[in-house]
Amino acid sequence: MSKNVYQKYKQTSVQSASREKILLMLYEGAIKFTKLAIKATQEKKIADRGINIGRAFDIVMELNNTLDHKIGGEIASQLEQLYMFMMEQYTKANIHADEGPLQTNLKLLQTLYDGWVQAVEKLKKDSNDTEVKAG
Predict the structure, then answer these.
(1) Distance, CA of 99 to CA of 94 (rounded, Å)
(2) Domain ranges of the chain
(3) pLDDT for residue 12
(4) Segment 96-110 mean pLDDT
């Protein structure tokens, strides 16, 4: 019973989350699954490696699919190239049981995540400043 309540809560929190929060959640998931894939690669757990690489790959593919090139312009194009590179790295890591491409992706994901966190905080601050001035 409590598991159902938790699932409903989790589903509601995702449905009501802002686009910025969802973006950060996607990055957090990709980072988590990439770390798990690295661990599985080190421990030679082939199935776990494949599952976690697949999950991280799917998240990066979703990030790529949701890019808005009309609004994002050059930044969206650069992110698309980066996401495509990362998907290639996941494929290489899985085929060759190599943690190197996973480490590369982990660094990229963490750098992007940190940048988005700063952007979201700035957006919130600017929004609050505007509300204070308008009020």
Answers:
(1) 9
(2) 23-134
(3) 58
(4) 98
